[in-house]
Amino acid sequence: MKTSDFYYDLPEELIAQTPIEPRDHSRLLVMDRKTGELTHRHFYDILDYLREGDCLILNDSRVLPARFFGVKEGTGANVEFLLLKNLAEKRWETLTRPGRKAKPGTSFTFGDGLMRAIVRDVTEDGNRIVDFECEGSFYEKLDQLGQMPLPPYIHEKLKDKERYQTVYSRELGSAAAPTAGLHFTKELLEKVRQKGVRIGFVTLHVGLGTFRPVKVDDVTNHKMHSEHYVLPEETAALINETKKNGGRVISVGTTSCRTLETVAKKEGCICKSEGWTDIFIYPGFQFEVLDGLITNFHLPESTLIMLVSAFSDSEKVRHAYEVAVQEKYRFFSFGDCNLII
What we know:
Number of helices: 6
Oligomer: single chain
Strand order of the largest sheet: 2-1-17-16-14-3-12-13-15
CATH class of the largest domain: Alpha Beta
CATH topology of the largest domain: QueA-like
Structural class: alpha/beta
CATH superfamily of the largest domain: QueA-like
Helix content: 10-25%
Largest sheet: 9 strands, mixed
Shape: globular
Order of helices and strands: EEEEEEEEEEHEHEEHEHEEHHE
Distance between the termini: 25 Å
Number of domains: 2
Radius of gyration: 20 Å
């Protein structure tokens, strides 16, 4: 299976630079998982495709304002820091630019002394292990100093930080948003509940590996990044009850999907679970939990479009993306939505 099998041509002007207002007015391309039939709707119409007894599984991870700038002590050079993974209380794996100015032993200050950092080590892929020093809460200082780590294909400045958060985000720790959930408003979620659809939460802290391209020709040689997940006991009970009663489990986003399928394979069932996952889902994968998927339109040759192709069918997904391009849907993080059911 070649990476090039998942390529499609996308005009740059279709990459969404700003979010739609209101959130639930984005367009929705509904795809029948089995037949490939396509229907053009708006996201607020999603209620028409949900049934009483179904459950929606949402990722409640909240994005860190993980991008901030430090001044190198001694030289005054400016260096960008991007938090990737929390290793200890104030120790992080970070991406630094330019890396040559952040060698082990170098120190930096942020916000005129609000915070300080010392580079301890360099990982195999060039990231830095950094210890941060500050009085009080690290996260409070980060909120003062940091910017949202928007994907590299978004060039417009985000006016409101909360527009890169879901309305139900609560567990701080992601380097990128679980973007399928950005389409929901609190009002729409309440209508979902009123219809008899129950809502459960998982947490998967999204890493920047989400945006890293697949660089190997053979898909099976790609190594996924690892991300931390939590599946609570109440969510496991909800999923098991839904399945028992003949309802459908519908994942909001590929992150929720990866969490559920990780637990099913790791534990042999859906139950309370916490750990790290590097699950790689591509065509041929046998889904054990999912009955439906709400997701955005993903980058060509990305692991995410491979996951979508695994859930339906590569040819059907390719056709859906071609139609979305023709119909000028908006793509990627702030773009429109795709329901596969």
